[in-house]
Amino acid sequence: MLKIYNTISKTKEEFKPIKAGEVSIYVCGPTVYDFLHVGNFRGPVFINMVRNWLETKSLKVNCVTNFTDIDDRILNRSLKENVDSLVISERYISEYKTDFKNLGLRPHTSNPKVTEHLPAIISMTEKLIENGKAYVVDGEVLYAVRSFDGYGKLSKRDIEDMRTGTRVQPGEKKKDVLDFSLWKPAKPGEPSWPSPWGPGRPGWHIECSAMIEAIFGDTIDIHGGGMDLIFPHHENEVAQSEGASGKPFVKYWLHWNMINFGGMKMSKSVGNIRTARDFLSEYHSEIYKFMILSVHYRSPSDFSDVGIERAVSGLARIYSALAHANRVVSDGAAVSTGSVSPALGEAMTKGRVKLHEAMDDDFNTPEAFAEIFNVVRAYNGSVKPGKPSPEAIINARSLIDWVREQGKILSLLEQDVESFLVQLDDILLKKKGLDRAEIESKVQARWSAKVQKNFPESDRLRDELVKLGIAVADTADGSRWEVAK
Fold first, then answer.
1. How far apart are alpha carbons 119 and 122 in whole angstroms?
2. Which residues span the domain enclosing 439?
3. Residue 277 lies inside a defined structural domain of this protein
4. Does residue 474 share a domain with residue 407?
5. Three-point CA angle 419, 56, 400, nearest 5°
6. In whole angstroms, what is the distance from residue 9 CA to residue 251 CA?
7. Which one of 232, 337, 349, 485 has the fewest CB atoms closer than 10 angstroms to its CB?
8. Does residue 380 lie in a domain region?
């Protein structure tokens, strides 16, 4: 039984979709005016996993993330570059999709744009005016926050506390300081769209409410977003959607935490903003996804050097076991019958059950990873020297199948094993300032010395490699090496 922590109730609730067999998910997407930073992709990685897990339960998932292609930041960039704002937005939609694909994530069911839903935005705004929830002043439509009795129920803020110390300034159009724009009149030189209140463009909050209604109807199962969106964006969405329809807007609110760098929040003022494109060019998508999913989604994720090293080490443990299993299967004889060793079989059976229980407990991915490591540990404990026995071959095949099965849920652990381990080593060699060809040469020289029984030279070269952080293992065919992790 899946339980989800619902932001609005602040409790874990049993997940029961509105419509049997189907799930509707909407996630607030990017404002497309620049490359996205590493924090922007925590949501896509998490929601991709949520979707995968729901589908293991034979649920049909309609997963939607929007593109905000009308915004002040887009307009400012278009003015700076002297190009149309839609040129800017389409450019960075394309860049987003490139990063998304490079992360190995499944495409969303759809990616609606604000510019494609202006009629729906205008229609919802008109409905809010009709319902007495909004008013028009000089071509601007403002939401009357005090007209909605439930304002603050998502963020748990009291409306009177929000108003303390603030007041409407002379000349302002607002009747109340908390009122916010649904439709903004056009400023000179800005792109605009026609409306019953004159040319202008929508406010940010109304966009998501209108797109959700147009795609899903009045109520959806899951609405996701970062914790920074709870107020005011999602609070205002609730007021708009329920103010227009009179029906519950969202059944389950899912909010994920922020990304930190060594305990510091990522921000422009600190100067630690890093784009996903830059991160993926230096590291691998598996490292990014491991860092995101090995931490519970409601906890901060640390993107410090220590966090990266931890991810590399964890992935290396799993992929190294898979590499060994691949070699056993490749080197061993064909085996059509037999059973897995008792210890490994028990670890996989219990691991699958516990992993599924962890996923059903508010997507507890850290516990899921713990079970994967338990199975890897059990497999490593089953390894014996010499020619692979029939049991060893079955163990190896079972490990490969088991890890791939769990990895599919996480959209992880699906890389070509040998090439990924090489890529991990190349990343670490680069950070150490070492050259692969030079390491290969030293390893080969050591092996040659050993074959020639020049053991002092062999030992000297091995000590030299160890000091460089290179682990060497001898086999019947030569030496294997990797960067120590």
1. 5
2. 434-483
3. no
4. no
5. 30
6. 10
7. 337
8. yes
